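Database export, one record per block. Field names are fixed; values are copied verbatim from the stored entry.
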Amino acid sequence: MTKVKRGPEKKGKVYGIGLGPGDPELMTLKAARLIREARVIAYPTLAGGASFARAIAADFITSGTREIVMDVPMTVARGPAQSAYDQGAVEISEALNAGQNVVILCEGDPFFYGSFMYLFARLKSSFEVEVVPGVTSVTACAAVAGLPLVARNEVMTVLPAPLDDAALIEKLATSDTLVLMKLGRHFPRVRALIEAAGLTANSVYIERATGVDEVVKPLKDAPDVAPYFSMILIVKGADPWL
């Protein structure tokens, strides 16, 4: 009797899902469908807290879905976070090698400051990966603030607040529109630099855009403390047509 030689089992596929800035209705139809169909999902949490990504997707997660939770420590050191993504990639790989697709949830867009990119780097060489883009926090903040960002040949610069003063000051002087993200504990320092540059009147403060606890204020009226999910938009309005 001739023995039939079996080929390798089919591996599962990775879906990196952009969930948008917070309002579940801003998820794409494709993202919602893939989450509903998922038998395995994965997402990060910060220091054991609740997952913002999971909260956005909660109404689309079906009963019985396996959840791979990656607890990412809140620290400026890169090592602990990298270890969390290493362990997460191992668990995800086990599901993929068993032939299961895995949907990885990511707030905003997966490739715009998204946590998914760290898993993508670990999984892309061994598995098929599809990225589903999402509405970014930048465009969401512009929408809720009613603030067009750039026109014609204007230049927009995105700045993480942890950058040093010299870098922030240089960009404040040379860009037409600025987006300052990841404010958190850096907010007082960034606010002072904007004031020194004479741009406070051009600045809008937004936190938790599109969420139920959304805040939109001129920067001069902003609170003294800003959460991580907050942003400042600075539009100089150089285009004479506006």
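Remark 1: The helical segments are 29-37, 52-57, 78-97, 116-123, 137-145, 165-174, 187-196.
Remark 2: Confidence is low (pLDDT under 50) at residues 1-7.
End of record.
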